[in-house]
Amino acid sequence: MSNRVRIIPVLSLMGNKLVKTVKFKNPNYLGDPLNAIKIFNDKRVDELIVLDIEASKLKKEPNYKLIYEMAGEAFMPLGYGGGIRTLDQAKKIFGLGIEKVVLNSVIFENPSIVTQIANIYGAQSVVLSMDVKKNLIGKSRPHFNSGKEYLKEDLMAFALRLIELGVGEIILQDIERDGTFAGYNLSLIEMLKQLPVPIVAMGGCNGIEDMKKAIASGASAIAAGSVFVYRNNDPKSILINYPKINL
Where along the chain do its domains lie? Predict the structure, then answer.
């Protein structure tokens, strides 16, 4: 079995459109997600995650037609998040060919959905998108609803509670670094590296050196958005890319 680190592009959707945000704001239109998936197929990416960043906020159901089309195009393992509020919705998404569901807002409203899904599909199929931001007194807290709301709970306590419910992987994202190319929040990774599930670092990647630093700090895998959709990290120059990376 290979020990090579997973490198995971993350595609953000608004409706049928591929976009990229900065600090969860100001979405920049990039094009058609299906075309992006075709390119990533050609690049032989390890894994791909697609997040509908407005579905939960607008209380919309997942776009099953688009998910079906994306799963049909993807030759790599595909995770999906956005608008999942019930077990039946998760079942439908798995039935369309998705291998992992990525949960955020619903966990704050109905944490039992984690156990419901994990009992049927296994913990490895349930991913917590742990969006983190400091509050007014400088304490990092888990956020939801596109970063607009948060819990007062300690990050480690929150993560352990969700793992006990059935979460099998955590995407750890610093909201303030999203789309900034400022590098991963290494202290955040260090804080949570002892958790008994894989930690996927996300938010702020500026290239391979940042990826190496995140792995050295304790991340099990690397996720990124902007670095895989812009040429030379320039938001005005769109280029779906996936350079050969061996960490």
Answer: 6-233
